[in-house]
Amino acid sequence: MTLASKHLPMPEGPGSVSQAPNLPDRFADSFTSQYVDTGGLRLHAVTGGEGPPLLLHAGWPQTWYAWRLVMPALAQNFQVVAVDPRGVGLSDKPLDGYDTGTLARDMVALMDTLGHQRFAMVGHDVGMWTGYALAADHPDRIDRLAVAEAAIPGLTPTPPLFGSQEANDRLWHFAFNRLTDINEQLISGREHLFFGHQFATKSAKALPDYAVQHYVDTLAADPEARRCSFEFYRALDMTIEQNQKRKTRRLPLPVLAIGGAENLGASVGATMKLVADDVESIVLPECGHYPAEEAPEAMLSALTAFLSPYRDGADA
C-alpha cells in the first residue's frame, strides 16, 4: 500500500483486481487495486511491477481491464500504472472535467501522488487523446508516448457529414455520444445492444464474451457511469479548441503509433506525424480497434521494442 492509498478504503467489486473476471494466472500476485486521492479527485489504479513507471490509459467504453493481457509481461520491466480515468470504472464521476486538458492534468496529478515525476505512457482511443494532450501540455513529464487506434479531434482532418457508408458505420457514435440526456435514455436497459455493437463492429477478432459482458455490466450497473461515458464526447468542443492551439507546438519526444489493419491502420501514424517528428508507425495485421485484447502478443512486442531505450536509460 502506498502513501497515496493508506487512508482510503480498498477498492472492491468487479472493477477491482480481487473480483475482475478471467484475469491471467497469478495476476493478483503482481497487481493490486488502489484508490489514489489526487486532491479532490479519487482515481482507481491497478499497479505492480518493477522498473521505471509506465502509465496505461484505455479508451471508451473500457476500463483498466483492457490492458490485463499485456500487463504481466510489462511488469517484468516497468512499474505499471493502469488507470481508470475520471468517470470510468471505480474512479470518481464528477459532472465536468472531461476535456483532454483536464484529463491530462488528472494523469499528472495521479503520477505525482504515486511519486513518479517522469514516466512513459501508452494510450488507446480516448487514452490517445489524453496522451497527446499530456505530451503537448506537460512535455517535461513524459519520456515516450505510444498511442493506438484513434483519430484526434481538432488535429485529424474532419470527415464530411455525408461521407461514405464505411465512414458513417465507423464514426456515427461520435454524433450520438455528444447529445445531451437523450442518449442515456435511449440506451438505458439496452446497454448490451449499444455497447455490444461497438465492440462487435470495431474488432477484427471478437473479444471474449466475458470481457464484453464485464464492460457492459460496469456501465449498466450505474447511471453515472453511463453519463460519464458520454461526457468525453460532450467536451469535444473544448478539446478541439485546445488541440488547435496544441498543434502549433511540435512534440519533442519519440512517439509510437499503432493501428489495427482492419480498422484505422496507418492513419494513426499519419495523425501523429502532423504534430511530431520522431514517429514510428506500426500496423498490426488481422487486428481491429482493440489491439491490447485482439493482438496482445503483437502489441507487447511493439511496446517492448519502443520502450527499451526508456527502460535501459532509466536503469542506467
UniProtKB/TrEMBL annotation:
Residues 1-23 are annotated as: Disordered. Residues 52-295 form the AB hydrolase-1 domain. The keyword Hydrolase applies. Coiled coil: none annotated. InterPro entries: AB_hydrolase_1 (IPR000073), AB_hydrolase_fold (IPR029058), Epox_hydrolase-like (IPR000639). One of its GO terms (molecular function) is hydrolase activity. It comes from the Bacteria. Keywords: Hydrolase. This is Alpha/beta fold hydrolase.
